[in-house]
Amino acid sequence: MQKIGHFIGGKHVDGTSGRFADVYNPATGEVQAQVALASQQEMDAAIANAAAAQPAWAATNPQRRARVMMKFVDLLNRDMDKLAEALSREHGKTLPDAKGDVIRGLEVAEFCIGAPHLLKGEFSEGAGPGIDMYSMRQPLGVVAGITPFNFPAMIPMWKFCPAIAAGNAFILKPSERDPSVPIMLAELMIEAGLPAGILNVVNGDKSAVDAILDDETIQAVGFVGSTPIAQYVYSRATASGKRAQCFGGAKNHMIIMPDADMDQAADALIGAGYGAAGERCMAVSVAVPVGESTADALIEKLTPKIEALKIGPYTAGNDVDFGPLVTREALARVKGLVEQGIKEGAKLVVDGRDFSMQGYEDGFFMGGCLFDNVTRDMDIYKTEIFGPVLSVVRAKDYEEALDLPMSHEYGNGTAIFTRDGDTARDFASRINIGMVGINVPIPVPLAYHTFGGWKKSGFGDLNQHGSDGFKFYTRTKTVTSRWPSGLKDGAEFSIPTMK
């Protein structure tokens, strides 16, 4: 049985706590590895290692730090297939989806190559008699990220790339469900030239999380996961005087106006609702057709498409639409919520609960489910299902449709499909959601913009990646200076270069 430990000080380190968690192959249901769960002492050692390495890294000029990111991007492209295969084996994603996971993280690394520009401060000459004022952005020191199972490549890179490019050392606590790729990323960073100790990967459970939140050395924590845990991490981290950037659950609505291209809308819903088995925080889980005729037409378009979805392991080829859920517990939870929806009176138009694949009967597979006539008082509407389940909530008009995402406790992402510019503009202006798509079902911003939800989907003042990533992992120092006039002797005749 493979044992997965930690990555500390630039090398693999065996776990010493004696505690392990099983790592499954979701397609077969088999335990394929065991990952060590860190003790308080192991986490303390990793943090001390990071703290010792960080001052020299912070003193390295930003352009040289950016060159490490540049090399890291090259290595990610070189090892794309290997990373995707490892990701799919532990998570269950299809290979194209796993490559997308890596690529969306790679794009943030590409953005961080611009760290020298992003870290520039401001300067005011002659702010007073002989006085100049300037500001500089400086790293916080040691920072940490606690990342989820559903994007084991992308979200760790969203966290550690800007943090490290800004001069910090980083402690990564990834999900224990799919721990291999985060360690592979740390190996690549070392190969790219990152000094040992600047990126440490410590596997663990709640004990490791609490050790991060309570440690006085760690200055900031980034988290992605469920809302209850996001609230817990935010509260405990800020109570310890840390910066916290915590992103939680979602219930993403897509409104379909009567003038929308129905084929386009249906295809968008299929990909956004069932891709990655619905295990995405930006998955569309609620479709809101406006008007009965729109709803009837949408159901008619969706039903055969959902029934025709190709489900299977990542080894079945690139034309598989989605794979298994991540664990047996996740599968049981989703099936339980589907049963609850039936009890509450929703109409189950497509039932994928009995899906079984020959040779993979013990895998965590489930077919796509489609509910119609869902109402806002039902659990399947209020709860983030995190599975291949799409709920249709019918709205009589635009204002009722708009009120559904506006009134929901989550505010991660939303979309509207329409051909009317006035409607689209009104929607984008009024909606109280962090990320908005207009004829785009999953409006995840590119790396040079920022990602973040509103309401109970996000806790903290700054978003992930983009300029906010650098703001979160640095603090501003402002200097007021006055110097006597005078010139220094001597001349240099060779072109100045970075030293």
Which structural class matches the secondary elements? alpha/beta
The helical percent reads: 25-40%
Task: Assign the CATH superfamily of the largest domain.
Answer: Aldehyde Dehydrogenase, Chain A, domain 1
**End-to-end distance:** 49 Å
Domain Aldehyde dehydrogenase: 13-479
Protein name: methylmalonate-semialdehyde dehydrogenase (CoA acylating)
GO molecular function: methylmalonate-semialdehyde dehydrogenase (acylating, NAD) activity
EC number: 1.2.1.27
Quick tags:
single chain, 499 residues, alpha/beta, Aldehyde Dehydrogenase, Chain A, domain 1, 7-stranded mixed beta sheet, 6-stranded mixed beta sheet
Secondary structure layout:
Layout: E1 2-4, E2 6-8, E3 11-13, E4 20-25, E5 30-36, H1 40-59, H2 62-78, H3 80-91, H4 95-112, H5 115-118, E6 123-128, E7 131-139, E8 142-146, H6 154-165, E9 169-173, H7 180-191, E10 199-201, H8 206-214, E11 218-224, H9 227-239, E12 243-247, E13 252-256, H10 262-274, E14 284-289, H11 292-307, H12 328-343, E15 347-350, E16 369-372, H13 379-382, E17 389-392, H14 398-407, E18 410-411, E19 413-417, H15 421-430, E20 435-438, E21 454-455, E22 458-459, H16 466-472, E23 474-482
Parallel strand pairs: 1-5, 8-9, 8-11, 9-10, 11-12, 13-14, 13-19, 14-17, 16-17, 19-20
Antiparallel strand pairs: 2-3, 4-5, 6-7, 7-23, 12-22, 15-16, 18-21
Helix pairs in contact: 2-4, 2-7, 3-4, 4-6, 10-11
EC number: 1.2.1.27
Keywords: NAD, Oxidoreductase
Protein name: methylmalonate-semialdehyde dehydrogenase (CoA acylating)
